[in-house]
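REQUEST FORM: STRUCTURE PREDICTION
Request ID: SP-0412
Submitted by: Lab K.M.
Chain count: 1
Length (residues): 300
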Amino acid sequence: MSNQTNALDAMLAQYEKNNAPRAVKTEAKVYDLKNYFNTYIPEGVKSATKQIRILPTADGSTPFVEVHAHKVLVDGEWKTFACLKHEKGEACPFCEAREALLATGKDSDKELAKKYNARKMYVVKVIDREHEDEGVKFWRFNHDYRKEGIYDKIIGVLNAIKKDVTNAENGRDLLLTINRNQNNVPVVSAVASLDPSVLSEDQELKDLWLSDARTWEDVYSVRTYDYLEIIVRGGIPVWDKEEKKFVDKAALTSDNSDADLESELTMGVENVKANVQAAAATTPVETSSASDEEEDDLPF
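STATUS: Completed
RESULT:
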């Protein structure tokens, strides 16, 4: 059996599994926007198209890497935090908050617990044909249990053509049509496959793209328990250079000057964990209930 058939079968099998009835690296990273593909379109632009090529995996497995994360709206922007429970098998403050709410048995708490659910997402490595000079990019998008998401549209193409679009020699580019939904948010409304083509006529460039061994953890943060706990408590994580760790800005004494702190996120969430005291002026977590394809945030 060819690698092309293996890859196609792997992608289709993954899709079937994900739609069946439902029963970290912590060191500092340098974020280069060239590493990320997104479907953003400028304000005032109603629609656009983008052409990409999904890169094959070295072993012929599915290129869609499944990850779980907690996604919240902060100051009008979406922030995503990898779930420690799902990704590392470790304790996760968001999951603990959810479990504490469910344990009360109250309907109101059950509803609030949904805000702390870990959401399934996919990360796939692509080449943006408009920016080939920027090299391999990572594209992260949500799983849609309604079967109307980006993943579903791509799998629809695979089922129609019965070909491995990732094949480096005779795969196919994908054309993404992007429109604004009723909330004025850019969403991928259609995916189409183009004619078979080689990944690149430049053999050296093709080899460079195919040899990229980075994984999603190399470009997206997996935060520590302590960092996430500060957020769940309603605090603001800041880096204390003297303590060499993240601390809650509100807990610092007046002796700490702003020059000694590096704030990475200003975010408050409603206190729901047992034995956690709500910080002053906290802001409730908000999640998307209208769409599973809202524009993704930066990886910080």
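NOTES: The CA atoms of residues 71 and 138 lie 18 Å apart.
Reviewed by: T.R.
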